[in-house]
Amino acid sequence: MVLPGQLPAAAKAAAAHPGLRLVLDHAGKPPVASGELEPWASEVRRLAALPHTVCKLSGLVTEADRAAWTVEDLRPYGDTVLDAFGPDRLMFGSDWPVCELASPYAGVLAAARELTAAAGGGGAGRCLRRGGRADVRARA
User: Fold this and answer.
1) CA quadruple 68, 32, 6, 55: dihedral positive or negative?
2) Cis (ω within 30 of 0) for the bond into 97?
3) pLDDT band of 124, cuts 50, 70, 90
């Protein structure tokens, strides 16, 4: 797992090893509760610029206000990873059972569906169907 402050090192390591298939777990643990996007968003985009990286859309609800989060709280972070990685390099994961601290699985899945709906052209379905078998063979 890569934390926000570790994203520059992850990008450096991935750039130095283009044969490495790097999966950014939990979208890099963005600071959802604080509402801050930067520097997390810029660093995620830097990592996503490397074509052999993919991102797992998971763990956002436990980074939010666990008692009162909404999909709108998660949207800037979901939009960032969807825009940066695209639907073909984004996979869904629930972070179960940890997500239960903030939401039952059904709530996490519903949020992921809503966050990826903007992908259009079947992109949302590709993210959600892939789950743990996303294209970890991302093309370099």
Assistant:
1) positive
2) yes
3) low
One-letter amino acid for residue 23 of the chain: V
pTM of the model: 0.88
Domain residue extents for the chain: 4-133
CATH number for the region 4-133 comes to 3.20.20.140
Q: Alpha helix locations (H) across 18-134?
A: 40-48, 60-63, 71-85, 105-116, 123-130
- Cβ distance 85 to 92 under 8 Å? no
Closest CA to 22 of 89, 83, 84, 100: 89
Residues paired with residue 92 on neighbouring β-strands, in sequence order: 57
3-state class (DSSP) for residue 24: strand
Question: pLDDT category, 108, cuts 50, 70, 90?
Answer: very high
Task: Provide CB contacts within 8 A for 39, sequence distance 6+.
Answer: 4
- The neighbouring-strand residues paired with 57 are 92
The beta-strand segments (E) located in 5-104 are: 22-24, 53-57, 90-92
Q: State the average pLDDT over residues 135-139.
A: 46
Question: Could you tell me the strand order of the sheet in which 22-24 lies?
Answer: 22-24, 53-57, 90-92
